[in-house]
Specification:
By secondary structure, this protein is α+β, with helices and mostly antiparallel strands. It has 2 domains: 5-78, 3-Layer(aba) Sandwich (Glutaredoxin), CATH 3.40.30.10; 90-217, Up-down Bundle (Glutathione S-transferase Yfyf (Class Pi), Chain A, domain 2). The chain has 11 helices and 4 strands; from the N terminus they run βαβαββααααααααα. It has a 4-stranded mixed sheet, with helices on one face. It is globular. The relative contact order is 0.13.
Amino acid sequence: MADEVILLDFWPSPCGMRARIALAEKGINYQYKEEDLLEGKSPLLLQMNPVYGKIPVLVHNGKPISESLIIVQYIDEFWKDISPLLPSDPYQRAQARFWADYTDKMVYSSVKGIYGGKGEKQEKAKKEFIEVLKVLEGELGDEPYFGGESFGFVDVSFIPFYCWFYCIEKLCSFSIEAECPKLVAWAKRCMQKESVAKTLPDQHKVCELILQIRKRFVENE
């Protein structure tokens, strides 16, 4: 009997993209269920994630798993013999988890500040965002991926934010590539992977949605 895999997601969500990339890397067939969070949360989402009511949620054989990095780890552990995302060495695994957690906390918070702020608040968030990217660029070094020669857990956790870069640059009038050229080169390298290229939505489409949300909730304040 084949596994039943369902993903509850919202198309512009970087967190949801993590799960989609991980499933694609493993070659796992799944049913995608779009949650239009702008219109409200479905009863299924609230049933599968009653604590937070957030996407993504992976439902595997009827059992829900929530929180994107936990979902990616679950996918990697359950289908462990296919394209491993986490290294086998315990120390390297711990380091990968640390940097994935860093992207989860630091990148998202600074991006949220840019999209949700204006004036001095937005400028402060922009500076924080650049500082975070420089830290990540330092960790990447001269390696092709955060996992060294192999595309791995940290890459999966961070690359979804790349489709938001265009809108960040548009809102803040600066070049991310000028600030962090190695990081942008890494992102373009990741985009050559089929799992990433087919998952990340068009950056202009993402920006259009973000600007609509911003106009609705921020600019009219």
